[in-house]
Amino acid sequence: MKHLLTAALPRDEAIALLDLAEDMHQIQDRDVKKLPALRGRTVVNLFFEDSTRTRSSFEIAGKWLSADVINVSGKGSSASKGESLRDTGLTIAAMGVDGVVVRSGSSGAPALLADWIGRPVVNAGDGTHEHPTQALLDAFALRRRIHGADASRGKGLDGVRVAIVGDIAHSRVARSNALLLPALGAAVTLVGPPSLLPPPAADGTRLGVRAETSLDAVIAEQPDALMLLRVQLERQAGKVAPSPAEYITGWSLTDERLARLPKAQIMHPGPMNRGLELSSRAADGEASTVLEQVTAGVSVRMAVLYSLLASDQGGSR
Amino acid sequence: MTQSRIVLGPDEIARALTRIAHEILEANHGPKDLVLLGIPTRGVHLAERLAARLTDITGEDFAARTGALDITMHRDDLRARPTRAPHPTRIPAVGIDDQVIVLVDDVLYSGRTIRAALDALSDLGRPRAVRLAVLVDRGHRELPIRADSVGKNLPSARSEHVSILLDEVDGEDAVVIEDGAA
Amino acid sequence: MTTPQTGTPQTGTARAGTTLVTGAAVLGGEPRDLAIADGAFVDPTTIDRDAAEVVDASGLVALPGLVDLHTHLRQPGGEQAETVATGVRAAAAGGYTCVFAMANTTPVADTPAVVEQVHRLGLEAGLATVRPIGAVSVGLAGERLADMGMLAGSAARVRVFSDDGHCVADAELMRRALEHAASLGAVIAQHAQDPSLTRGSVMHESPLAAELGLTGWPSAAEAAIVARDAMLAEAAGARLHVCHVSTLETVEVVRAAKAKGIAITAEVTPHHLLLTEELVRSYDARYKVNPPLRADRDVRALREALADGTIDIVATDHAPHAPEAKQAAFADAAFGMVGLETALGVVQEAMVETGLLDWAGVARVMSTAPAAIGRESGYDAPLEIGSPAHLVLVDPAARRTVEAASLKGRSTNSPFLGVELPGTVLHVWHGGRRTVMDAEIAETQVQA
User: For L-aspartate, which residues are the binding ones (chain A) (predicted)?
Assistant: First the structure.
């Protein structure tokens, strides 16, 4: 692995990364949260789009591995003054950094930077394309819930049924999970209003997996996990997206729907719109993995940075 | 042509471990506060074998005082070699603070692994003392480190390769020297 | 075969004498001789062979000079990407002797001053005839009609009007434009793209677009406008030309309109005949174009439609861009590809080598028909005695790999860089004047 641009990883590689994240996760219990593995390495968080959560998570991950982490925000930088994406990338690479973590509003920007700058690039979310570390942390948190924290190593998510609910069409989280979770053996169903589902392929699948419009029908199948996505209805208000009232009626995880899901894990990538995507009871209940997902984020990102940057010889594990 | 010869067989390894177990107890004046930490991968199995002997000798549950200490993140050659996957670190419930830690490894050579282990240990807590037990010491130290207990001193040339085979990993117990000049 | 050298006079021979082209496969037919004198084709049996410049064309195909109804020359305003002078170099190198220059310049070609400037720059550049296209609406804003009569009556003799780059989306405005064009003997060339269906669209709407996270451009956004405009053209008794048809659905609409007797013509670009959306997987903005590269089924439908006459012509939509406009994320980069220098090779690959079109057919869709739509005279009797000597000699057996360094235009945003294409344009005459010799621009001829 030279870059992490997509969550489309082979099963063994994905499990190896999750296992590595388990090793990294141990640091959470320590007084001294510092490993020297990336001492002397410099990582740039190049964020063309605001995201305090993801940026902080990568920053902590890099620092716990003893890397020097520098944050470059797209806003206010030369990138917003008409400098081309290529020039921005080449400029940062020329400063001698060892790796670049990129968040961009433009799908494909990390892949282009990876080609241009010849340094390891981590996709921290690109447009409506992918968010691979989010999918990895979702898989990590879910694997711990399914198998138990001490018994997750080496395991996939075989036979685990996951429903992903919300604005699938514009969600990079949905895309990356629709790639990663099936590779780990899970059965993914995408659920959302028809106007917020991506176009179907010839075989009826969307993003390569099953898609449904009725959340109630999917709940009746008793999935093992329900992942609610952040919905930004104001973005396409009225025209493409349903009204908030209609959305809640059809696709919100209300208390009433929660009661019909006694065994499912409730996941959300955050930040949550309580009352819209899910009720407070769903967000705060025993079944909610929301805070575990955040914790997992640091461990998974440590695993990714370690894999890409620890060795000058790169990838082969 | 690669020449190889067996320098320790199963019985000799078993006798060496029994002797080391006694030495550990002797040096510590009994079993009090002892914690064994094996360095993956073979050091972990050796630590478990030592723990079984210590349990037999003392009647105390040494399985509960034995764990694993991974040193991958603390190695000084991470950059120069292909990316290594770390192994889990398992610290016994008693923790390491104010305990007497016995690091267990299969071969003592340059001393760099033990240096990394001491660093890893200091990130986890503050032991009262740290001891080192190894099955084989083949010399060629690059750091001022020595073992407290050694199964066998095995002077060897740098060009030679010393392999420790353990039943748990390799299906047999043996220490083998190979001529690496091939 | 090798490039014919024997009989070719030394470079720079600019005498206004006669030229004898021997053994050319005229329109792909049996080899025969062609003769040029005083800018026109003459009977080769009547000339003094000893005094003529002789070009051995054995193994070469003779085609009429190509006519591109859809070229962006970028001047005025976009000179960092292309100028009239550099654009006609690209045109000549590609075998073109006439290009129609689109109106989306800065300022827009909505006044006689702009179209006359472009026309004059074309005359100065020499290598090919430049026919300015006039804007349909003032500033391409789609609100008020440009003064079409003034443009038609200017020295530039505008006969094609287009807001290309933008769709004339307002139905009322389109209706009036068609009515006005009919009275001027002109044609409206519509960029068919319903803007409300294509907000933020950057590639073909498809499962691949969903996978790549790029906003899709649905086929219906093109076909729906073409259907509407066909009805408007019929009612107005006007001629409608559809720019860059890209989908199966649009082909069906055009076919139905033609069956109904509506005066509709349509063009397809070379890139839509050969390339598909799969290329966008790389996120390389060289593959970003409007309308976007489509699916396999569309490519097949477009080829069949060009072969059966539903689509009348090939037009390049040559759209040069400076490098910085393409060194961006896919969604942020500029739309467009250069195409003048690769068009003939692509058509040979997509249409001739597949058996869908013969060389006479190529001459029809790349020269005779586009000239007729644009009301450019001199192309109606290709290579016949008495016609202006617009001539291209192509080596159909040669293959070449397209390289940025060998492109003659100012910009290199070609989707075919590194791609091997058949056919090499070896020699071109524009009105009897040599513009390309041995695949290089015949510079001395221009200054003569």
Answer: 81, 172, 230
The tens digit of pLDDT for each residue in A168-227 reads: 999 999 999 999 999 999 999 999 999 999 999 999 999 999 999 999 999 999 999 999
Q: C333: which chain A residues are within 8 Å (Cβ-Cβ)?
A: none
pLDDT in tens, B73-107: 999 988 888 888 888 899 999 999 999 999 999 99
Q: How close, in Å, is residue B75 to chain A by CA atoms?
A: 8
- Separation between Cα atoms, residue C425 and residue C408, nearest integer Å: 13
Kindly state whether residues A275 and A172 are assigned to the same domain. Answer: yes
- Write down the ipTM of this complex: 0.92
**A303 and A267, same domain (yes or no):** no
Q: Which domain holds residue A251?
A: 134-290
Residues of A in contact with C216 (CB under 8 A): 199
Q: Do C216 and A128 touch (CB under 8 A)?
A: no
Distance CA C240, CA C264 (A): 5
Q: Torsion-angle region of residue A20: left (phi > 0), alpha (psi -120 to 50) or beta?
A: alpha
Domains of chain C from N-terminus onward: 19-62+386-447 (2.30.40.10), 64-373 (3.20.20.140)
The 8-class DSSP code of residue A34 comes to -
**Lookup: tokens for A305:** 């940075």
Query: Residues of C annotated in the binding site for Zn(2+), as ranges?
Result: 70, 72, 164, 191, 244, 317
SS3 C187: strand
Calculated CA dihedral for residues C213, C217, C218, C220, nearest 10 degrees: 170
Model-level pTM greater than 0.95? Answer: no
Residue length, chain B?
A: 182
Chain C hits for A127, CB-CB cut-off 8 Å, are 213-214, 329, 331
| Mutation to test the A interface, candidates C204, C215, C283, most A Cβ within 10 Å | C283
We find that the CATH architecture of domain B11-156 is 3-Layer(aba) Sandwich (3.40)
Q: Which residue in A19, A65, A312 is closest to B79 by CB distance?
A: A312
Tell me whether C330 touches chain A (CB under 8 Å). Answer: yes
Please report, as a single letter, which amino acid is at residue C412. T
